[in-house]
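Holo model, iron/sulfur cluster. Inputs:
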Amino acid sequence: MYSHDLIIVGAGLAGMRAAVEAVKAGVNVAVISKVHPLRSHSCAAQGGINAAINPKDSWESHAYDTVKGSDFIGDEDAIELMCKEAGNAVLEMDRMGTPFSRLEDGLIAQRPFGAASFDRTCYAADRTGQVLLHTLWEQLVKAGVQVYEECQILKISEVDGQVAGVVAYDIKKGEVFGIQAKVTLLCTGGYGRVFLTSTNATASTGDGMALAYRAGATLADMEFVQFHPTGLRYSGILVTEGARGEGGYLINDEGDRFMTKYAPNKLELASRDVVARAEQTEILEGRGRDGAIFLDLRHLGAKKINERLPQVRQLARDLEGVDPVYTPIPVRPTAHYSMGGIRTDKYGATILPGLWAAGESACVSVHGANRLGGNSLLDTIVFGYIAGRELGDKLGGMDMPTLPESEVQGVKDQISELMDRPDKGVRPASIRERLGEAMNSYVSVFRHPDNIQKASDLIPTLRQDLTTMHLDDKSKVFNVDLLRALEMQNLVDLAETIIAGAMNRTESRGAHSRVDFPDRDDENWRKHTITKWDNDAQTTAFSYEAVRTVGKDAYKPAVRSY
Amino acid sequence: MSDQVYTLRIQRNTRRDDGTMDTKWDEFQVKATPLTPVLNLLEDVKGNQDGSLTFRQSCRSAICGSCAMRIGGKTRLACKTQIGEVVDENNTVQITAQQNSPVIKDLAVDITKFFSKVHQIKPFLQEGSESAEEVDDTAFDQVNHVTQCIMCACCYSDCTMAEVSDEFVGPAALAKAFRFISDPREGKKSDRLKVLSNDHGIWSCARCTMCVAVCPKDVKPMEAIVKLRTRAMDAGNMDNYGAKHAQAFHGDITSSGSLNEALILNRTLGVVGALGEMGAALHLAKKGKIPSPFPHKIENLDEVQAIYNELEKNPLDVETKAENAVPE
Ligand SMILES: Cc1cc2nc3c(=O)[nH]c(=O)nc-3n(C[C@H](O)[C@H](O)[C@H](O)COP(=O)(O)OP(=O)(O)OC[C@H]3O[C@@H](n4cnc5c(N)ncnc54)[C@H](O)[C@@H]3O)c2cc1C
Ligand code: SF4
Ligand code: SF4
Ligand code: FES
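Output:
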């Protein structure tokens, strides 16, 4: 059994930013991550990070864009906090060593991004996430923070209403162990793998959300799933919004630049939900090809593409076999980001004492029903920093709980049971495929109640299969087969909350688009969906929570047009 | 493009209780188009044929550095490698774990050795007297390039020198060191150059270009190493065999137009050192691994001289500037 004041689960941007801050306060911090920190999915972020650092811009304008982008369901106190902190957060990353792209005078370069009223997305070519992640890792190494690498948490231990730490599995050794801590901070990222095709990494299985939910924390707004307008047709791999920021067009199979019809002002740079729906409409009405429409970069020319979007060019060549200098890239709306997550206050605390969350796994909520491009990296850095700072202050005065040995034993038993199963049930991959397929087909860009019901009907079958699925790999070390089986449980839990949330919300708002309720309904639905696991009934329990407002006229719900 | 049947011949490794490795080969047939990434095929096998097949992966888009493995005799990222590019005439490809790191299971290696090298070069910006106050738009031209590195270890796996020396810091770590030394904000450039001039650092590289050839992110570690050598010598770090060798080499070519091979090792290392180095040289020769830019038989010294002159005229420096990231 190990013991730390603070255990941070996840070594993506949120987790490492929190660790770097907390360690400054002199508390005993450790990080645990199922992949090496540099393998965390934050590395895949291409486009950039928003901050009003230009004197002509203002944090107020950024906050307004974010409130509007959220379709008026983001929490305004948290949004203001994030936008105020943004400038410092980015400049601090620069000081730590991030090589941002520069303007001639040395200022950090910024590019236009969707639904923003100013060009405020700071970037490093098209690999912003990677350089931010590497910078924070460098700082983590510098500070000498202990990292439990390639160790996956399988349980959040709750004892008498207080979280006492986590139970984890060392992938390299095959050992189960406990880490007790005054506070467990979850920075475990998103759950893209609930969907069959997604821009997310295979490690994005929403473990933190699901385990927190099982431990008694609440999840918020799970029905709001962002579909990115430009995932590659076959793999779902992302082509950054920066490609449209640099001037790329969306065209249908007939060569028409169709966004002129759907968002005459902002065109390709309208909010993501708007663009994704436009694309899906084109595809459904037969103007796509093989389920895709096209991102046309040809007019940008080879030089600009090489300078600004080198990774995009390479990915298109490697994964779709097209060179964007000569041929439009086939793309389609693809599951990308979870606006929902573990419900926290604006500092990161959940309703469970001893449990905090930040980054994509949390729902603070700054993104509401639709996240703006460039706001998520910002969310991780700002709220990682804030959680680290707050906990650095608070931990000294807190007591160390006891993590009972029985909790560790419980997880060991769970693993043995799974390993000992006869080779009769399905493989974990089969469950993931059926779940992902149903979510892709029935709970994506447009949602019809009959379809949502079909997805819902599948859940009991999948739960049954979870109890009988078998492993091919019975070995002790590096048993990925085992881990994927355990992750399946998480994916099914989360899918259930997404499906039920989508069924309940009888309106269309942001990324949630109900074909039978096409309009936003502020009177009944300007509120957060709160989901809690009901252990007695073995199902999800719902409640709703008002949006946290600050009383500014500018933030009053209005028609959202771009 | 239509589907074809491909055969993946995969090395399966299991560690026995006594620590030794049990190795066998398994063949799997998969259907795919030539454009399909190898990683997808491995996933196909794992999901539908044998769930025990073990390999690392995560991002699927050549940015997380997880999936480096030997595919068709070269270390590559499985997610970035299309099957059609690597199969032989029988549509078969052989896949094994990375080299130069201990194998844990099947295609997954222990990454701690590789990362310990990176830790060794102090991989973070340091405060100090040498940091520049201001940066301009060109300040990161050199930095940008090496920060493309995703720490996948492809280069380390195929590095000639890492194969014969566990101590060698290796291409990725040295490229990372260059990243800091070329950053105007770094405060301890001289200290770094001094440490890197020590044994197992910049002078241990055999300049075999393997790292440049296999790097999936175009980092060109060897060029970073060459630049580090120049900077280290410029900064006065001459008291090491590498710098002396470079000087001796330079002296020979310019004075007699050819190298006095028999003597150069002596002048560099002294007699005892030269004897010590023979082991490594023999080992390299045995593996057939002193590749380009030097031909196998170093007979045509005029060619060497030509290369040397060419490099004098066109230092490698210009090539490693990043073409990206600098807005108009
Ligand atoms: C392709 C792509 C491009 C994007 N581009 C942008 C962009 O340009 N701008 C922007 O603002 N946002 C972008 N986003 C969104 C943004 O990158 C993510 O939301 C953000 O990086 C999430 O960071 P995180 O720290 O919350 O989690 P992650 O970086 O996902 O890290 C999660 C961490 O948790 C660990 N973990 C998970 N489960 C466990 C477990 N059970 N046990 C132990 N450890 C665990 C993982 O190992 C990992 O270290 C993009 C997202 C994607 C997918
Ligand atoms: S230099 Fe290239 S091959 Fe080596 S670790 Fe970095 S990205 Fe990988
Ligand atoms: S050039 Fe040097 S660092 Fe690169 S592979 Fe060869 S010996 Fe290794
Ligand atoms: S899976 Fe991330 S680099 Fe291949």
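Chain B touches chain A through 59 residues (CB under 8 Å). Chain B has a mean pLDDT of 83.
Archived with the compound record.
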